[in-house]
Amino acid sequence: MSDKLIINAAITGCVLRKEHSRHLPVTIGEITECAMRVRDAGASIIHLHARREDETPSFDPRDYRDLAASVREACDDAIVCVSLSGRHVSDIATRAAALESHPEMASLTLGSMNFISGPSINSPETICELASRIYAAGAVPEMEAFEAGFIHYASYLIKKGVLRPPYYFNLLFGSLGSAPLDLTGLGHMVSLLPAGSTWAAGGLGAYQLDANVMAIAAGGHVRVGLEDNIHYDRDRTELADNVRFVKRIARIGSEMGRLPASPEEARQIIGLSAPSPAQSL
Question: Is this entry keyworded Zinc (predicted)?
Answer without folding.
Answer: yes
